[in-house]
Amino acid sequence: MNKAIVIAASLLIAISTYAQELPFQNPKLSSKERAKDLISRLTLEEKAALMCDQSDAIPRLGIKKFNWWSEALHGYANNDNVTVFPEPIGMAASFNDDLVYEIFDAVSDEARAKYNQWIDQGNENKRFLSLSVWTPNVNIFRDPRWGRGQETYGEDPYLMSRMGVSVVKGLQGPADARYKKLLACAKHYAVHSGPEWSRHELNLNNVDPRELYETYLPAFKALVQEADVRQVMCAYQRLNDEPCCGNTRLLQRILRDEWGFEHLVVSDCGAITDFYTSHKVSSTPVHAAAKGVLSGTDVECVWENYPYKTLPEAVERQLITEEEVDESLMRVLMGRFDLGEMDNDDIVPWAQIPPSILNNDKHRQLALDMARQSMTLLQNDNNVLPLSKSAKKIAVIGPNAADKPMLWGNYNGTPVRTISILDGIKTKLSNKQILYDKGCDLVEDKVTQSYFDQSSFEGKKGFKATYWNTPDYTGEVVTTVQITNPLKLTTAGQHEFASGVKLEGFSALYEAEFVPEKTEELVFKTGATGHFELLVNGDTVQMYSNWRTLPSRKAYTFESGKKYNIEIRYTQLNNWQANLEFDFGKEVDVDYSGLIKKLKGIDLVVFVGGLSGNLEGEEMPVSYPGFKGGDRTNIDLPAVQRNCLKALKEAGKKIVFVNCSGSAIALTPETKSCDAILQAWYAGESGGQAIADVLFGDYNPSGKLPITFYKSSDQLKDFEDYSMKGRTYRYMQDALFPFGYGLSYTSFEIGSATLSKTSAKVDETLELTVPVKNAGKMNGTEIVQVYVRKVNDVDGPIKTLKAFKRAEIMAGKTQKVSVQLPPSSFEFYDWKQRKMAIVPGEYELLYGNSSDDKDLKSVHVTLKN
Predict the structure, then answer these.
(1) Burial grade of 633 (CB within 10 A; 0-12, 13-18, 19 or more)
(2) pLDDT at residue 333 in the model
């Protein structure tokens, strides 16, 4: 027995020693040398598996399982106890790329800390808890109806580039470090910004080269060449008949040949499958896999059934060679070696980041600082703001006032704590000074009276819940619980659905009987992350599987006196955080007369409304009027909120409207019904505090719009038309609130600028110095913006942002603000050369504090060879 143990131990030592001698395991070699050696030891089947986003382990070589899909849009997403920063569109309003860098340096620290903690507990790498993060989204927010525009940094190519570069540098760590902290990803490449409902079939064939190179590509180019981003994600749709993930023009000629990108390309999830299911450019998964790799897509993401696992068959059928597979795999493996995930933790500095860094004081302060800087004051009639802390009483009304998850936006983690807007206001006033009422819903013009307490099971009120620690309702029952209130269950914060129920891999059955007193139509209100099925008397009424919880409404007619058995079957899926919400009842019309009576004697109302991540986002099954698939069909404020504001106005109230949204809303009626409008975006875990600080004058707002706020939906073109003509400040001027616009509690005066040279060579850097005076009585921050227009450019943009700078100026003081204009500031698409170029000629520099002509002054410069 002992001899057998000794022999086994000796063999293990020998194997271990041999394994350590393999070149791919030698950290002293370059990532390329290691990847080349490892590829030589792999079977073709193993190679194919390593090119899937959920990459299988290869035990015989000591290769661990690896997942490429994690998210870090504004914090480490789909994880608990992390810091949740403002949504990117709000961060863009800060025009502060230095602070963006600090934030994503913190995000990458938290991502490493969560990953280290998970692995140290003996777990394996999994989706949403890995070192590859598919962030940032640098698609141009060209149309306000796009639900995912909130994930971007706005409608301007230069602002997007500046912000995106800071995101990547913060996530990946120092450029000269041996190991990358994380691998960032520029997505979705390219020409991708809605609509969500047709993204799997859409073919864009009207994007001319000028718009491609001047509008849709600059941010991707900047991330590749300035930030050395390690991943690029190709988009779903087709560009000029070729799917973006099978588009050699995008992935080879532009990305690799023109820009010199050497790292890996990942597919959007399911994009390769779309080749044969939606676009019909491939006949089978085998052909799709070969097309994807040959075009330049190195890693495939899909929910299940990877076409890339058929690559061995593609090689056998001579659709692709093994050498071509190796070329793609080389980039994949180099990425993993660059992370150090195959090396010992003791030589990877990032592996030492402890859990104590999660949501620490510094990160909380960063979240608050950015939330404050994102606040964008759009209207302030008669200086109704800032509010007085000695007010006798104010009303806080609106569907977003007390909604904490709304502040998280989308693609979010779950914070340790969230300060709602109502909570923030309570830090300024006593409870006696505040009357709170939700007032109305975000979109529904009816209120649901719950019938949950009229249900019962075996004589006990409510629903009986039965739980299994298996995903298929088999095995031993863990526990049964009687639930008497509407379901609102989550595993966020490591909470169990019930005592003894695991956080993953469980299933649940909820059962009740309901006998209605009269025949009437009721509605089921549901939402789930995971697999959800609702049955009535054994018939499926509703069924879906979601990776995020979205509100859903289903009407059902019940007959008087008839017994109904209601069942909910729920299964936690994949690595998704489990959530379950359920209620049912009767909808009744909203009556504002009761609200107005409550407000008797109160003159001022803070109305907190807008939208939420439950309405706008990625490919969502939302069926409310004005919304489709996560996008909007019009950009009006939902009618129920508009009617509520109208009732408040008619009652003689002063109204401060706090608009929370990830996109532009046509606020033309609201400029008349409201005295002040604060655009608050989705402001993150400290958003409520930041909003209160601005409302009560403890912070002077400085945010500027990163998108155009249009007057109405009538100004918008066909959503699927990607031509920029008539879109954004660069090609239209008749806006309600223009790009770059934002008020302050003080007033700034822009003086006449001086230019270092009015005639310069095309390769010279110019300096523009702008005197800015704070003419008010409050310290504040102004954002100086510089736009460039090429004179006599008949089809070019009206103006385009090329520089900006934040300036903190004391009351009564004047500061000279200098901005650098490198040669690239004068680069436009040249039709003669068929490329981006700096062409000699006359250029107009426009400078001021918004893109509106009335807020700009100009100076001319002539460039020559």
Answers:
(1) middle
(2) 98
User: Which CATH number describes the domain made up of 368-445+591-731?
Assistant: 3.40.50.1700
For residue 584, give the nearest of 649, 648, 522 by alpha carbon: 522
Bridge partners (DSSP) of residue 552 are 526
Amino acid at site 241: D
Q: In whole angstroms, what is the distance from residue 505 CA to residue 501 CA?
A: 9
Q: Dump pLDDT digits (tens) for 20-54.
A: 589 999 999 999 999 999 999 999 999 999 999 99
Predicted local distance difference test score (pLDDT) of residue 386: 98
Q: Do domains 368-445+591-731 and 448-589 have the same CATH topology?
A: no
* Catalytic-role residue among 46, 80, 151, 268: 268
Whether pLDDT at 10 is above 70: no
pLDDT digits (tens, 9 = 90+) for 461-483: 999 999 999 999 999 999 999 99
Query: Rounded to an integer, what distance in angstroms lies between the CA atom of residue 99 and that of residue 546?
Result: 34
CA distance between the termini of the chain: 86
Measured in degrees and rounded to the nearest 5, phi and psi for residue 194 equal 90, 170
Phi first, then psi, for residue 776 (nearest 5°) are -100, -165
Classify domain 448-589 at the CATH class level: mainly beta
134/389 Cα distance (integer angstroms): 44
Residue 12 has pLDDT above 50, yes or no: no
CATH number of the 29-68+97-357 domain: 3.20.20.300
Where are the chain's structural domains? 29-68+97-357, 368-445+591-731, 448-589, 748-864
State how far the Cα of 622 lies from the Cα of 609, in Å rounded to an integer.
Answer: 18
- Residue written as token pair 């998850």: 405
Provide the pLDDT for residue 445: 85
Q: Which long-range contacts (CB under 8 A, 24 or more apart) does 11-19 make?
A: 19/61, 19/62
The residue type of 721 is D
Among the CATH numbers 2.60.40.10, 3.40.50.1390, 1.10.579.10, 2.70.98.10, which is that of 748-864?
Answer: 2.60.40.10
Percent of all residues in the chain with a pLDDT value above 90, rounded to a whole number: 92
Task: Given the residues 300, 441, 616, 631, select the one marked as catalytic.
Answer: 616
The question of whether 176 is a catalytic residue gets the answer no
Give the side-chain half-sphere CA count within 13 A for 221: 17
Q: Does 105 participate in catalysis according to the annotation?
A: no
Rounded to 5°, the CA angle 540-543-549 comes to 145
